[in-house]
Structures are given as C-alpha cells and as structure tokens.
C-alpha cells in the first residue's frame, strides 16, 4: 500500500513503515447459556479484516462510534487481546508470532495512554514510583540516582514539578493525572504511542493542554501516534492521516485534509454532518445545529449482521441490492485515499 | 452587593410573562469534615414559559447541583438556601409529598446516563405507564395506551415490541428516547435535561437534539439544557448561562453570547473548542491553569488566576452579576466590549 503525503505541509516525516497491520481479526466469544459448547454459534468479530500501515513520525487518527472496535484494535496490536487471524509487523517483526521474551523487549517501544487518567494509575504508588516502574523493568542497570533524574526530567517535561513525584494520584486533577500517564508512557522513549481517548474525560479548557503536550513531545522525540478519539475536531487537529472504523472494519483511510474536505464513505459523511456547529451563521440568524443526515436512523447496526454485505447498509441512504450481498473491498479510490464502499466511485463524481 | 435581574423572558418570546421557574440567591453546600464545600453560590435565574435556557460550565462548576436542589434531589449531606419557585410554589422547603405534586409530572428531569436512570428489572412499558398511574390517576390500561402513543411520538421504531423489553435490551440512543418519553408523559411545563447527549455517539447525539427541538414545538414545554458542550447548547437554547466556580458569570441571548462574549471566561471557552472547519492551527488554544476546586476559598473573582485581563481589583473584590445590555448580564470588572 503506497500512501501519498500530499497533505503533510512543511514537515514531511520519513516514510519508514513502523507498524504494518494485515487482515487482523479479533473475536470475542459471547458465552451463551450452554457455556463453552454454545460459544461457536454466538462468536462475532470485534475487529475484522483490518489492514493499514503506520509510518515513523506519523500520527494516525482513529475515529468511530462506540462499539466500532477502536480500543480492541489498539489492544490487539499490543497483544493485550488475542487476535485469531492476521499479522501485526513491528519494523518487520511479527508481534503476534513472537515469544514472551521477544514481546517484552519490543513492548518498550510501544506504549499506551488510557482514557481514564485516574483509573489507569495505581492509587497506592506515588507518582514518582509509577513513572520509575518502566525504567526498573526495562533499564535495570540504572542506579537509583540516575533513575530519579530521569523521572524528575520527565515530570518537568510534561509540565509538572519534581516535588509532585512524592504525591499520590488522588491529589491531582484529571488533566494532571493524564500528564502523569503520558510521563509513564514516554519515559522509555517509545517509538509508538497509542493514545486511547486521552482527552475524552477532560474539560474542554484542559483538552488543548494535553493535545499540545503530545504535539510538543512528538516534535522533540519524533514518536508515531495512533490517536483514538470520537472527537473529530481533535483528530483533525493533530492527525496526518485518519482511519474511520464502523462495526469492526475500516471503512475509510485518507490524509487528514482529504478526509475532512472530501470524505467518500457515506458513514464518514454522516459522522461529520452530525457534529454540532458552535456558531450560528450570524448574530441575527437563529442558531442551528446542522440537521442529522437522513442516512442515520435510530436503529444502529449490529455486528452480528456483518457477515453478509456492507455493515453500514441499513443506515445508508445510498445502499443498493449489491450492498446486502457482498462485503465491499477496501480499495484505493484515489491515490492515498482508501474506502470500502460499492458506490465510492460514483459518489466521488 | 445585590445582583440585578434581567427581564424574565428572552427577547425571542416577545411579551414578558411570569416565569415558571424562578430561583433567587440559591446556594448549595456540602458538609465535609475539613470545611464546607460551596458548590453553588447566590444563583438567581428565571425560566419563562416555552423558553429554552442553556446552562454551560466545566465539571465542578455547580451546574448540576443547581437543579438537583430545585428538584429536591440533593444528597443528605447537602444544605441549600435561597428560594426556588415553580409556578409560584416554593420548592426548596417543600417536603417530598408536596414536591411530588409537580416532580415527575409538571417538572421533570432527563439524566445523562439513561441506563442507570431507568429501572433495570421493569419492562419499558410498565415504567412509562407507572408515571401516568401515579401522577395522573389513570388506570393501567389507559396508561399503557398513552405510553405506547408517547413512544411513537418520540420516534421509537417498533414501539410495540420495545414496550415489552427491558432497558438493557435497548441501545443508548433508544434508552434516551424512552427517558424523554417518560419526561413528557404528563405534559410538563418544564423539562430539565442534564447532559442528555453526553453518553451518546455523535450521530445519535444529533438525533436526540433534533428530537428535543421537535418536542419543544410539539409539546411547548420550557427546557433547561445543562451541558459542558457549548455546541450542543448552541443548537437549542434561546439564552445561555455560563457558570464558573458555583456562580453565573455571564448570561445572554445565544447568538449574541457566542459571537460577542463579554466575560473573558466565556471568550476563552469558545476559543478553546477545536473546530471541524476553518484554518487548522498549529497549536490548540488553551486556557492556562485549573478551575478552582469547590473547597477552595476564593477572594475576588474566581476566574482571576486564569484571566488574561485580571488586575489587582479582580483579586480582591468579587464582581457582581450586572446588566450590561438588554437581556445580557456579566460578572466582570473589565468585560470585553461588544
């Protein structure tokens, strides 16, 4: 898959592929009344046929509604959940195939920041110990003094003070806890930072601080980011490319500018149209939220119906007979712009 | 310092009429071992018939506690003072029996999480019908019929099938539709919606906003929309109130307030919201610092530590909420020019 960087502006990151995901499938067994015996019948794929590349230094935004598989995909990449099929290659090495020792060695390069900043910190460890823990595991040769220096420097780097390292998570606000979570993830200088809704639980006046911190770190350290969010405006702000998921599958992948200016998939269009706009046209006109696209009906799809046809067909105003029988292929409609829709070519025109 | 009050109705509604809900100097505090936490301080506001008032503020600003006090839903360690009148009746001192003459029928509330506000072990139809049996003295068969009709009105697809289902069998969006149906069953005069779309996906959020808009014109109730999201409020409200650290810092007609915010906090808040269109900025605009915690003792203006316009006076003397133009109020010593 060759991807154009037409949207990159002044700072074009190098094109090395860090992460190559191919045909990834994760299945969660829903336990029926029959227990394990009944499992096979109720199994469904939480993510399916996921393929994409992530380049060094790139931020890939990942958007989709709840239940679309964003978090599951992130966890499958880190092998926190088991993928039944597909491959995840990290700089050429298959993460899904490697043994526990090799995995542990690789994991220092792949770190994650979680959505709930307080719940993801150990309440009984001081903040300093929390940030020092990855260093103890991955850099055991460091002396206590060297480790403390690294922790203090990291605290300062994320906008806190070394003295705060003595305190416990409950003494910090949500935004500060997220800074601590970022410090813990970044202290090992990872090459990929997976951010799973890192600003969703924060007030809007704090969100920008965290987003800017991530951008500053990326500028200084050059790590790649997989940035998961349901907030399209935040994703627009910091992503180079954006990946849209619907019920476990990628429906669209495009450079940021293209995705927001000329989305191809009807679902992406509905998603963008649904975001309420803040300002009415003029102070004199009545304020108006853009009406939701008629394609979005109250009956949201169910993953169980994914097997045959396009998962979005029930909500899609463009659906044809073909959409109910065959799953649309994930094709490159325009160079660098991938979409899974039978009618993408017609809708482009 | 006595706060001044604007006319009760928004300009959109022409002739002033007496408000259905009227709060005067409402304060709410929570008893804690160290010091009382003052969540709401000296808030006065009016809601006119058929009006939609948006109330925005960050977490901890007191926006929810304000209306929990009005509904008599404060926890036992909370105390409230001041006055809240609904159609002239004082609610703040009323016992549950008197409150329940309005609460749940003429004065209703929609909560953020429809899963925890519906009863998990009762079928949807039963929960809805119960409202009419309790508040409108209807028979169960009448009530069930009316409830089914209401589910149709809030556009629940396959209402007959949904009627016999339990809350866990419904999606988040459908559950919120059921909550809205429940709040409208007794033809309320005022519905208080507390973050009604916050737990929902953006496409479902748009549908619920549309539904609330449609219900406003069909049912004609007044609506208080509480949200942390200015954009959600902007789409529905005639008038917006902005809360910070337990107090109202600005109020005004929606378009006017969004285009010409007078309080620096409102202006910064609007500035912070990342946009889907327009130029993409290198850095997101931010508001430095943290909002004060409810337990902090504040001298002067609560926003002063974060305010780009703050002067010595702001740190020593709290600015009162004052009329600044017709229908608009601001609590700031140095408001922005219109």
Brief overview:
The complex is a heterodimer of chains A (349) and B (338). Chain A has 349 residues and is of the alpha/beta class. In chain A, 31% of the residues lie in helices and 20% in strands.
Question: Could you characterize what this model shows?
Answer:
The complex is a heterodimer of chains A (349) and B (338). Chain A is of the alpha/beta class. In chain A, 31% of the residues lie in helices and 20% in strands. Chain A has helices spanning 39-42, 70-77, 100-107, 127-138, 144-157, 174-186, 204-221, 232-238, 256-261, 266-274, 321-325, 344-348, and strands spanning 17-28, 44-55, 59-63, 85-90, 93-94, 110-113, 192-196, 224-228, 241-246, 249-255, 331-334, 337-339. In chain A, strands 6-7-8-3-9-10-12-11 form an 8-stranded mixed sheet, with helices on both faces. In chain A, strands 2-1-4-5 form a 4-stranded antiparallel sheet. Chain B is built from 12 helices and 12 strands. In chain B, helix 4 (124-136) packs across helix 5 and helix 7 packs parallel to helix 8 (202-219). The two termini of chain B are 25 Å apart. In chain B, strand 7, helix 8 and strand 8 form a beta-alpha-beta unit. The radius of gyration of chain B is 21 Å and the shape is globular. At the A-B interface, helix 7, helix 8 and helix 10 of A face helix 7, helix 8, helix 9, helix 10 and helix 11 of B.
Radius of gyration of chain A: 21 Å
Q: Which stretches of chain B are poorly predicted, pLDDT < 50 over at least 5 residues?
A: 1-15
Low-confidence stretches of chain A: 1-13, 38-42, 282-306
The N- and C-terminal alpha carbons of chain A lie at a distance of 24 Å
Order of helices and strands of chain B: EEEHEEHEHHHHHEHEHEEHHHEE
Assembly type of the chains comes to: heterodimer
The global form of chain B is: globular
Please identify which CATH superfamily of chain B we are dealing with.
P-loop containing nucleotide triphosphate hydrolases
In what range is the share of β-strand residues of chain B?
15-25%
Q: Greatest contact pair?
A: A-B, 51 and 52 residues
User: What strand order characterises the main sheet of chain A?
Assistant: 6-7-8-3-9-10-12-11
Helical region count of chain A? 12
What is the top-level CATH class of chain B? Alpha Beta
Q: Can you tell me the overall shape of chain A?
A: globular
